Amino acid sequence: MKLAFSIVAASTLLAAVVSADDPARLTGEYVEARTAEVFAGGCIMNSEAETMGRQAVMAWRITTGSFKGVAIDGLTVIAAVAGDRNLGMREMGGEAPTAVKAIITVDPRATAAQRDALVALVRELSGGLITQVVRVDTAPVRFATSPTYVEVSASDTLLLTVNKDMKHDPSCGAMQWFTPFTQMAQSSMGVAETHSFSGSGLGTKWSAPDKRSAFWGTFSY
Asked: Is residue 200 part of a domain?
């Protein structure tokens, strides 16, 4: 009995030591929306593949953790991105975009070090999608979730409202064509009821409402 207790105690202590030695795990919420459907029938996908899906919004709200040694608990960062091709076609064997520009908006509560960490986070967690950060802004940001919606905004130039309840319409052989740009712990698809970017710097502006073009959920890194 004493031996069994000692083994359990030693295992618990070892787990605690390993946990203490590990860098703080980064966890939080994530949402993205594109200008092309991520869940659609082949007829819609064929019509959008070459001409749409070149723009997207990506947003992270950090719950807890640090990045590059900087604590960023509770902060939000948002990226508006635009490429020269459909951002997701490489998943289907098509040509990947050769240039993807981003404007990153950082939570105004962030310090200079946190700002740099959040920008680095976007570049790393977007999996190499972004080739050029055109500008980094500090402006009022919003990332709010409810049982039915995710709402994101940056100043008055970026708006995203995602309905979590996406109807899986079987018409036209509808299926999921793409996966999120970032690795997620849990993800679901949603309807981007509002999705627009009216800022400058990307060479394009867009409004793509009422599309099954969104992913939302949690991430851990």
From this structure: yes
